[in-house]
Amino acid sequence: MTICDIMQRVEFMLYSLREDIKMRATGYVRKLDSLGRIVLPKSLRKELNINEGDDIEMYVDDDGNVVLDKYVPRCVFCDVAKEDVINFKGKIVCRDCLKDM
């Protein structure tokens, strides 16, 4: 199976990994270019607060869907994704876990 076959079968959805937001169809359909890129519509980027230069994580869920999410660093101890983290000796640590150290 080629990457093109896989990409044709995969439904792209963007969602936050927070449990309080469920995946929803966006209605956007984009073609994959020859370099494997897709363009996220400006209105969707604005709605999800994704800006030029932001890091995007890619996952494959249990149903085989490719999931794109704005990257938020995760604490190595509690595995919670937070904006407010510290690089402590090369590891990402949230302030709450740092207090407990």
Order of helices and strands: HEHEEEEH
- For the record, the CATH architecture of the largest domain stands as Ribbon
Gap between N and C termini, in Å? Answer: 48 Å
Whole-angstrom Rg: 16 Å
Give the number of helices: 3
Which class of secondary structure composition applies to the elements?
alpha+beta
Q: Main sheet: which strands, in order across? A: 1-3-2
CATH topology of the largest domain: Pemi-like Protein 1, Chain: D
Task: Report the average pLDDT across residues.
Answer: 75
Strand content: 15-25%
In the residues, how many domains can be counted? Answer: 2
Q: Which percent range fits the helix content?
A: 10-25%
Main beta-sheet strand count, sense and barrel state: 3 strands, mixed
CATH class of the largest domain: Mainly Beta
- Total strands: the figure is 5
Characterize the overall form: elongated
Which regions are unreliable across 5 or more consecutive residues at pLDDT < 50?
Answer: 4-21
